[in-house]
Amino acid sequence: MSDTMFTRRGFLTRSAILGCSAAASPLLTPVSLASAPWDNRLVVIILRGAMDGLDVVQPYGDPGLAGLRRTLALRPDAGALDLDGYFALHPALAPLYPLWQANDLGFVHAVSTPYRDKRSHFDGQDLLEAGTVTLGPASGRDGWLNRLLQTQPGMSAETAYAIGHDNMLLLSGDVPVANWSPDVALKLSPQGARLAELVMHDDPLFRDAFAEAQMLSGSMQAMAAEEMAATGDMQGMAGMSAPAQGQAKGKPKGIKLIAEFTAKRLRADTRIASFSIGGWDTHNGQERTLPRALDQLAQAILTLKAELGPHWKKTAVLAMTEFGRTVRENGTKGTDHGTGGAMLLAGGAVRGGRVYGQWPGLAEADLYQRRDLMPTGDVRAYAGWAMRGLFGLDRAVVEQAVFPGLDMGSDPKLLR
Amino acid sequence: MTFDPILAEKRFGYGLSPRVAPPETVADMLLRLRGPDTIAARFPVEPFSVFRARMLEGARLRKELKKLRGTEAGEAVRKDYQLLKKAAREEHRRWLALSLIRRAWTGDGFRERLAAFWADHFTAQGKAGLLKRATSPYIEDAIRPHLSGRFADLLYAVTTSPLMLHYLDQGNSMGPDSPKAQRVGARAGLNENLARELLELHTLGVGGPYTQTDVRQLAELLTGLAYNAKQGMKFRKEFAEPGAETVLGKSYGGGKPGLHDIRAVLEDLAAHPATAAHIARKLAVHFVSDTPDPDLVRTLSERYRDTGGDLAQVYEALLTHPAAWRPELTNIKLPDEFIASAMRALAIDPQVFTGIADGRKHEKLVARLFLRPLRLMGQPWQMPLGPDGWAEEDTTWLTPQGLTARIDWALSAPAKMRKPLPDPRTFVTEALGRDAPEAVRFAAKAAENRREGIALILTSPAFQRK
């Protein structure tokens, strides 16, 4: 662990003490860390389990679809929502349709990471988050969002946030990022906290995690106090930002809680945030299982939009998955692990209302290994263009540092 | 760097107990492991063979419900079905508590660790209905009896177990040219899930020498493997793909399809050197370090190959290797290990759980003490995200929120299970041994109350590492 890291930890510990005392008094402004380097926001949602892009964004205009998807292809006349005369949206994403109409929602189709052939979730997700062409040894591996941070001077501890219980490789690496799940809070007494620091002092992993926990727990409480002060009554405590009010009625749960916490960080100093949504591995009864996962995704995006308020205009949300699924339905009314899939774009910063990408077709000869949607684009290129647009990165930085060896190709102009 | 009884409990068991003596030698550890499963007999968990009766009853009720839907009698049947599901859920909570109690009171901690290790290696979960409760029964039947036998036997038991077949979608997988597929026509299909995980996770490992073609061929070979509650595990010939399949260059089947072909391919996969290397590495990482000594991994792999995958022999190689006895504690306990070892150090009376007759009351307690905390610590009970089970990397678990959740559990749960709490000044030695770090001893003494004193000991790195 480097010296600068150690210094930052010291800083965090001091902030934590400040944060706690601020929380005790709702009149004090809660602690704010260093100011953010950018004004735009990026949220990356990892869809774990391999989302079936063909079902979510259905190419009903392709004559091959109906034959391959006997129970799954819905077409606009059977409930799917027409997007552009060729593609239709799965009905479970109907809550997002107004965003599509407002050009705040778009998709990229027939994309993938460079991962091929073994179709393992775990390797696929690791590769998606590592952003590399192949997987090296697990030790020392970092994620592409962390490498983005590494190229920028002056990152504060709060610039990037991993949210939820997953430890995301996407944000892991040499640059420290904040990491928190909004449903926990440290309940030690001040004396207990000091003793815990002592007990953990000689073990760097414990010491750092504890320092960060103190800082985050403190800032959560400060946030709750701030809200209470702003609204002037206990109603304000009903949000997720109130660990002390765990029993409050109407407290959001699960994905809404995570999205709400994310939006609150983005309204403050955070500019990059990431979390994941599972439940996409629809080998069986996809008609029943996929809508559950889509509902989570829709809730996440709508909550982000509602909570970000005016900042939604400066936000791009990218939802990506490790790979697509087989073009044919399997014997259990589901789909198996495939290759090409779809990526979702949302936010006021994106140029939505269109399906990006180059459609490869579903004829047998057009498929990858005669079974999967042929990937015609690399998800990393689209993520790269989005980051270049949002944060003004040089193309060379994206192609060499963030995604080493990537050719971004021509600009798809994803952003407004 | 040789055997040490305290280290044996910490690294290969669930930590120290003030009431149960640690093993005395490596030979003693292996002897206990080869002996009868006494702790399972003392705290019995329902085996799958019994759980099956619940599934049968469920199937019967669902059938009846179909007939009577909309009638008053149908309403009564629906209620019965709800009660059946509720009873299974309450039992599931009891099995959770019993699993932890076994770990807390066993004199054979290594067996419990191995049961958890293999249950994770062969992760299986029910995805719907009653089967969501079946993981512990699966472990009782498919895993525990085979912990120290041949890996091939464990592999066969797991691969043909109802829960694994369900979890990895084997049940309806049919060969494209099988009699069943001919009959149902367009609706027929092969499902590759079990075949893929068998190669990637259970045997060769993801870096292993197999291709997509091997996955597909193995999936075709596995067709016919199926389970239903009425008939049990049964080979369904009409689902089986006719003809031979080639897996890793060797041809299987071609004659009358049946379980013997599946047995044969599993034997060969178990005997493969890539499997030896994969299992060796996993054991070393799990028990010793995220970055294990290469010589330890090599030794385990060689012993595996030399003995045809005799697991007791592989464990012996592990327990007699100097790298296994490095005194510094490295790996961080997984959340369920952390909770179990805290209960062991606190010598929690089994009666706290077994003494509650009311299922609902018991369930509430388990939810508060274990289910919710484990979720917050990042390890919802028996629900890893995928068939690769839980991550081993320490950094996965020691995140700020993971640590916070452990601290909060250590602050609140012990007092709910043991009254009064022990004096932290004596507990520090009971939990950590005579060489407890000075800082932890000081914290135990300086804490402002017993509750925080106990929590500081339990969340200290000395307790959380193994």
UniProtKB/TrEMBL annotation, chain A:
Pfam families with a match to the protein in the record: DUF1501
State the source organism's domain of life: Bacteria
Q: Which residues cross the membrane?
A: none
NCBIfam families (UniProt xref):
TAT_signal_seq (TIGR01409)
Name-wise, this protein is: DUF1501 domain-containing protein
* Organism (species): Thalassovita aquimarina
Automatic annotation (TrEMBL), chain B:
Top-rank taxon = Bacteria
Entry's Pfam families? DUF1800
Please give the name of this protein: DUF1800 domain-containing protein
